[in-house]
# Entry
Amino acid sequence: MLIAERLSDEELMVEVLMGKQEALTALVERHYSLLLGYLYRLLNEDRFLAEDMVQETFLRLMQRGGYQPGRAFKPWLYAIATNLARDHFKSAAVRHAVPQGEEAMLAMSDTRLGPEEQALVSEEGRLVAQALAYIKEEYRVVLLLRFYNGMSLQEIATTLHIPSGTVKSRLSVGTQRLRELLVCMRREEVKR
Amino acid sequence: MKKQDEMNNQDDRWPLDSQEHLEEALREQGELSEESSRMAPILLQLRAWRAPVPTTEETQDLLVRLSRHLPAVSIVRASIARRNTSPWARLQDFIEIAHIQVSILQARFWVISSLVTLLGMSALFASDDEVLLTLILRALGPLLAYLGTSEFFRDRRVGMLEFEMSCPPTPQQLTLARLLVILCYNMALGLLLSLLLWTHVGGNILLLTSHWLMPMLLVTGMGLTLSLFIASGLATMLAYVTWLIFLGAITSTHFQSQIEVLSQYEAVMGLAGIALIVIAQLILSSSLIRTLTDSNTRL
# Structure
């Protein structure tokens, strides 16, 4: 275990592909929490779906050809997770069950939480979740990766297969929109 | 209560751990300094949206489910995968391959090459004539190349042996490793001879080295290129004999001046030799890939 802790993500992943249990344990312990947080926020606080997708993400990594040795691990991991979430949004079941548009996503974020969880979430947190749900998916993904997962611009670019210039512009537009929404919502809250 | 703990046990990581870090992140993504300072306090609210953190039990559950899908990999595949981890690992592996290739050389090679070197040494000490000594170096350098190349490389038509195709190093790595071994060994011997000559008659050590190194590269290149068409033993012999005839023809007419003219073209000879080595390696590699593809198709 001590040896596994000293290895990089990429080295651990190569060991996982060779069937090493300790490497898998180290890799899961390093990334489970952050990946779950990312998918939980991206999937509008649907914890069960986020858990399923975390498992599916790791399973896809472990498949033959799921990971290319020598490539940066973290962007690879989040690229799989993001694609799974996108596939979910595009799936026929979701299209039929949920109305399209940002308002619909907002409504979804309100209804997915159980009463116990809703009680636990602070008012300020709810405001942030609602504001982010209003933002288009392409901007929301970069905001989540940047501000909640602490990814560098280059890592986000590699994850999403877009130029770093596009990452910057999406972050800029997304951040501005988020700020406006948060200010606006705060005002509404005060009026109420 | 457990859920409460989970929701409170959050990861507050960069850039949301402080306003300064958030401002830094905003500036990095292209926002102006003033704008970053204005936006940061508002965006710091993002911290309030917490995500659940998995408990130890949940992590164990996930590991149990994932462990069922851990790939079962053979030792050979594991070795190949390990080799791809970093350039340093690849280099280490290549050195290891080259080291193993040395064992292929038979005792007669070491004996003959040592005898050639000893012969060269005794000839160097037997005379003080710099031109004659230079001529000996020019004849012996390519002779070492001939011995090494004919011993190490097979005729292209022979193809790869079955065990060579099934072992983890690629056929290209094997041929490149052998070439590296033979060039390094020959260079070490040649360097020894030129150092002896330098201590014996003095002069420019670099010039002395080029007297044997450049013809050696040329003969190696010619030998490898010819081995693409004819048997490697015959190819290397043909290359060396051609060089000897060329050297003989030059020395038989206007000995002193022709030898000096030859010195001026040594760099060209060396470059031509390197070019021929590269061309031969490329053709050999593509031919090996075809051989392997054909084998797979047959399977």
